[in-house]
Amino acid sequence: MGVRLLKQTDLTVDEVARQVGFHGRSNFYAAVRKRTGQTPREVRASRNRDAA
To answer: CA 37, CA 42: separation in Å to the nearest integer?
Structure first.
């Protein structure tokens, strides 16, 4: 869900993390990186590449 929010919304990383139940940015970063192999910033940037 967090990855989808990163790709489909303009919410900040902190806002996405809170919406999916994380209380800290570092835990969210670790979870996204484990799932995707990318940081949240890289995931968000990939939405722009996918749309092009």
So the answer is: 9
Q: How many percent of the chain have pLDDT more than 90?
A: 79
Residue 7: CATH number of its domain = 1.10.10
Q: What is the mean pLDDT of the chain?
A: 91
pLDDT of residue 51: 62
Distance, CA of 34 to CA of 6 (rounded, Å): 15
Residues in the chain: 52
At 36, list the tokens. Answer: 């995707």
Residue 48 token pair? 């722009």
Q: How many domains in the chain?
A: 1
